[in-house]
Specification:
heterodimer; A: alpha+beta; Phosphorylase Kinase, domain 1; seven-stranded antiparallel sheet; rod-shaped; B: mainly alpha; Butyryl-CoA Dehydrogenase, subunit A, domain 3; 8 helices
């Protein structure tokens, strides 16, 4: 190795990346060449000053980490929901031809998300709370006022309603309250004949899709599987 | 539990951006990105280098600086106040900040953070020869800017 080689290889030497014959050749040259040895010593001392000045500074990261953890939790909730919806797709891939049943994964995920955001977390939305307004909305979906009143589970009352989209399809979102429990019912006109799916857990809620000769509907409730199914069956009987 | 490496990522990001709050944003984005793409991490590779690489890519991805025209940003008061305020520290920081940013980057990664030249090469996506020549030029330039009297520690 000559002095030019030493100058070129110095970064590798200082990063302890030289080994074997390369390292021996480098150190042999330093032993024999005073100016190269001094140059390397200067570089070592520059590195030491840099490390001592900046490397000793460890900034406080507690706030930053809190934000990151919160964001990760939010993302992972959404991911979990997508995963469960995808799992539901496998279960329902053999189901009937109506849109509820063939487009299950997105619709289930959307229904569960809308229920979570709009009903559980009360994110601001334009709800119709007056019975007359709700009935007017319902009539646009061919749903008679008598059905609106009777659709909720036994002992529940109608809270409010709005039009929303599940997987791009317009549906009527009705919210009923039974005690402290709020149940979402998504309804849309249908002409594909009757069927009922088994309830599926999506996130914290059971989601159940069913259809009658005239309507397709989805129930979302933070209830047991059996309760969710009985809500769905009761609503199906009305529709 | 502390998130591993967040301190040294933030330290590097502060020097890279010269702006404490931009640095925090950058580290947040880096950690989130790392969490999202953790499945791409190869277990036998160096997770520290992987995190720094994400940080650098995120920084350039945000278009904060052109690779062709490095801008030397003066050290902001916010960072200066957080540094250990000895004369020696301030002198080194000022000298470092007056270097072209490409030299500053390799010195920060290769010397302060202790990455090898080949790791720095992967983090910055530049050939190892380029890393080595930047390190040499950076060390030389830093030496010229630093007060020679205080050289002997």
């Amino acid at each position: 190795m000559n002095c030019v080689d030493i100058s070129e290889q110095a970064p590798l030497y200082l990063a302890h990346e030289l080994s074997g014959p390369d390292l021996r050749a480098f150190e042999t040259h330093l032993d024999r060449c005073r100016s190269c040895a001094e140059e390397i010593e200067l570089q070592v001392s520059i590195d030491a000053r840099l490390r001592a000045s900046i490397g000793s500074e460890i900034p406080e990261t507690a706030d930053l980490e809190t934000v990151v953890r919160r964001q990760i939790r939010m993302v992972s909730r959404a991911r979990r929901r997508r995963f469960l919806a995808a799992a539901a797709a496998v279960v329902f891939s053999v189901a009937g031809s109506a849109w509820w049943f063939t487009r299950t994964p997105r619709i289930y995920a959307d229904a569960a998300r809308d229920h979570q955001a709009e009903v559980v977390e009360h994110q601001p939305r334009r709800w119709r709370s007056e019975l007359a307004d709700v009935n007017a909305l319902a009539s646009r979906f061919g749903l008679p006022a008598s059905a609106v009143a009777a659709l909720g589970p036994a002992g529940s009352t109608l809270v409010h309603a709005k039009i929303c989209r599940l997987d791009g399809l317009q549906v009527l979102h009705l919210v009923y309250k039974s005690g402290t429990r709020e149940i979402s019912l998504f309804v849309r006109r249908n002409d594909a004949g009757a069927a009922t799916n088994a309830p599926v857990l999506v996130g914290h809620d059971y989601v159940d899709a069913f259809r009658t000769p005239r309507f397709s509907a989805i129930v979302v409730a933070a209830a047991s599987r059996t309760d969710c199914l009985s809500f769905a069956q009761a609503a199906a009987a009305v529709l | 539990m502390a998130i591993p490496q967040s301190g040294s990522l933030l330290r590097f990001a502060c020097r890279l951006t010269n702006d404490r709050s931009a640095a925090e944003d950058l580290v947040q984005e880096t950690l989130l990105q790392a969490w999202r793409s953790f499945h791409q991490f190869e277990p036998e590779s160096n997770i520290r280098a992987w995190l720094f690489r994400i940080l650098v890519n995120t920084f350039y991805g945000q278009g904060r600086r052109s690779r062709l025209a490095p801008v030397i940003v003066p050290l902001s008061a916010g960072i200066r106040s957080r540094a250990v305020s000895t004369d020696e520290t301030l002198e080194v920081l000022d000298a470092l900040d007056r270097l072209p940013s490409e030299q500053r980057e390799v010195l920060l990664l290769g010397v302060v953070e202790g990455f090898t030249c080949s790791e720095v090469s992967k983090i910055l996506s530049v050939p190892i020869g380029t890393v080595m020549s930047r390190l040499s030029r950076g060390r030389r330039a830093l030496r010229e800017k630093l007060n020679p009297v205080s050289m002997a520690i």
